[in-house]
Each structure stands twice: as C-alpha cells, then as structure tokens.
Write a structure and sequence with these properties.
This protein has ten helices and 15 strands. It is elongated and about 100 Å long. The relative contact order is 0.11. The two termini are 39 Å apart. The protein is 25% helix and 28% strand. The chain is α+β, with helices and mostly antiparallel strands. The structure holds zinc ion. Zinc ion binds at residues 164, 166-167, 171, 190, 192-193, 197.
Length: 377
C-alpha cells in the first residue's frame, strides 16, 4: 500500500516547501478540469489531497510518522472521520482547504474557491467552522453532550435570491483560458454568481454581500465515550449557511481531554500510582482507588512488593469505536518513612541484623498477580 510519501513522490526528509510543491504538481496532473470524467484521475487527485492534508500539518505529520500509514489511516478515531480529520475528503473539502495552492484561481462570487459538481451547477457550501471543546477524563469515559454557542452566518431574514442572468442558472460558462496547463477550453464557473446559478435579489439592511448575517446559536454536540485529545467530530450543517439554495457548512469540533490529577491515560488504559506505608505493605490492607467512574476498594496482600502492578480489568477507558474497554493499572509504591523518631530508628536498627529482612525476590510473584487479575475479571 502506497504511503503518503509515495503518493506525493517525495522522501520522508522532504521540507514543507518540497511537500507543497510535490502536491501542487500532483494536483495539476490529476486536476478534474484536465481529466474530465476520468475516475482514476479523480481518485489520485483525492489521494494526493489526503496525503497533503496530513503532511502539511506538523502535528499530523508527526503522528503519521510515528504510527505508520496503516495505523494512521485506519486506527484512532476511525469511527468518525479519522485521527485528526483524516479520510472521506470530498472535492468541496479539497478546494475549500487547498484552493489557494492553485494560485488563487479565478473563482469568485459566492463560494470563494469552493468546489464543483460533475458539470452543471456548482454546489455552493457554507464555510466550515471550527471550535475546540474541552472535557474532563470522567466525561470522556462515559460520553457527554455539550452545548456550545456558535457564531454562524445565516441567511438574513427577508433576503431573496434569483436565477443568475449571465449563466441562466446553470452556474457554468464556457471560455478559453490560458492556464498553467496551457490553452484550454473550459467550462468554468460563472463569475457573476460564482457558479451558484443564483444571485442576490433583495439585500436586507445589515446583511453582507452574500445576504448573510452573523447569528449566535446554541449547538448541542454529542461526544461519544472514549474520545481523546485531538480527535475531531463533525456536526453536519452547523457551519455557515450558504447563500441561495446552497448547503450549510459543517461545525468541526476539536476535542481536548483535560489532564486528570490522579489518573494517567495511555490509549484505553489508565495508570494510578498507589502509595502504601511500610506497615501496610508488611501486614496487608485494603486501599481506595480512584477510577473514572468512582472509587473502588481493593485488597493489598500482606508482603506486597513495591513496583507491583495490579490490573483492574475494564476500569480503564472505553474504545471510541465501541469495542473493548481498557484496564486500570495500579502501580504499587511502598513509601519509605523519613525523619524517624529515636524509638522508630531503634526499631529499624534492631531489624537490620534480622536475616528475615534480607531481600529475596522470587518468581512466585506472578501467581499473586494472576490471582488479583482473576479477582477483578
Ligand atoms: Zn451565473
């Protein structure tokens, strides 16, 4: 399977400028205007855009380099569009994100560099909006619904649109262009309506050139259990509205899961540092453990060693795709006392000579570990 570097024909050490240049070259080669009706070219055009989308973003590139192609494109947040927005790009996405790479082409009017359908009227799409939503680890563990206020552009009350007189509503005009690809006869978006096939008829006071006004709206976002920082959710249709009969953009929600004071996350597993005193370690006890769904008490066996890891099955984070739940790993630390009183010091001194206190590690620890595992499975 070709990785993103192969797709763009570059080496892993390529600079940002080289990546951009390589993408531009591929985009021109496979551009739909140059390859009308060629599905393979369209597929290659999309692949190049996906490769560029990841490699042009430092964070995504680092993650990609770390995980490898297979894991990056199939893993993580696969359930809703991929780790950090990978996958499922359509032509509109590509042109709205990377339109500038074509050198600020002649698209004007409504969509402002938006995409195009397979001939005929262009589907004008409102701009996607982005927000960042922050949640606690506890919220991420069970899923949560968040209400956020979003400032979206909407069609102004009273605005009307009419069929474009220049293109007769088709959104396309045929023209001869001198382009970077040479002299081409193209069916280009109408530059009066921007390809929408419609222009504004009546503009209400306060509306912008597209007949839109900014409106604050409360949007409810369902966040599934198991999300991680930098995952992205998409709320369809909650971006800016488009003028005329265009479709609304989407609201892209970047997730941030806050650090927890006591629990450390590693994928779906959680880690907890448990401290026990020397007498507790010697005599055994029960201890209260913080989990993401409340507290649980666990037994600490007499003679437990520092460094022992107790596994509480299923007490970790759920997988965002809904299968399996991680574990909570409790790391046992025996706390050695400092600043002893004279009596305490004498007590430990008297133990120094006792051979029973000599360390004598055994392999038998494993059986205890298994026992604890069984206890919670
Ligand atoms: Zn027109």
């Amino acid at each position: 399977m070709a990785d993103f570097y192969d797709i763009l024909g570059i080496s892993k050490s390529a600079t940002a400028a080289e990546i951009k240049k390589a993408y531009r070259k591929k985009a021109i080669e496979f551009h739909p205007d140059k390859n009308p009706g060629d599905e393979t070219a369209e597929e290659n055009f999309k692949k190049a855009a996906e490769a560029y989308e990841t490699l042009s973003d430092q964070q995504k590139k680092a993650r990609y380099d770390q995980l490898g192609h297979q894991a990056y494109t199939s893993g993580g947040a696969g359930g809703f569009g991929g780790g950090g927005g990978f996958g499922g790009m359509d032509m509109d996405d590509i042109f709205s994100q990377f339109g500038d790479i074509f050198g600020g082409g002649g698209f004007s009017g409504f969509g402002g560099g938006g995409g195009f359908g397979s001939g005929g009227r262009r589907r004008v799409k409102g701009k996607d909006l982005r927000i960042r939503v922050s949640l606690t680890l506890e919220e991420a563990a069970v899923g949560v619904e968040k209400k956020v206020k979003v400032k979206r552009k909407k069609q102004a009350p009273g605005v009307t649109y009419k069929t474009c007189t220049t293109c007769g509503g088709s959104g396309q005009v045929t023209r001869i262009q001198n382009t970077i690809l040479g002299r081409m006869q193209t069916s280009a978006p109408c530059n009066v309506c921007g390809g929408a096939g419609q222009t504004m008829d009546k503009k209400p006071a306060g509306a912008d050139a597209q007949g839109l006004v900014i409106d604050e709206e409360t949007v409810s976002i369902k966040i599934p259990a198991g999300v991680e920082t930098d995952m992205r959710l998409k709320v369809s249709g909650k971006g800016n509205e488009a003028p005329g009969n265009g479709i609304s953009g989407d609201l892209l929600v970047d997730i941030e899961v806050k650090e927890h004071a006591e629990l450390q996350r590693e994928g779906n597993n959680l880690h907890f540092d448990l401290y026990v005193s020397v007498p507790e370690a010697v005599l055994g006890t029960t201890k209260e453990i913080q989990t993401v769904t409340g507290k649980v008490r666990i037994p600490i066996e007499a003679g437990i060693q520092s460094g022992k890891i107790l596994r509480l099955r299923g007490k970790g984070m759920p997988n965002v795709n809904g299968y399996a739940t991680g574990d909570l790993l409790v790391h046992v630390n025996v706390w050695t006392p400092r600043n002893l009183s004279r009596d305490q010091k004498e007590f430990f001194e008297s133990m120094m000579a006792d051979s029973h206190f000599e360390p004598a590690p055994e392999k038998g620890d494993k059986s205890f570990f298994e026992k604890v595992k069984d206890m919670f499975s």
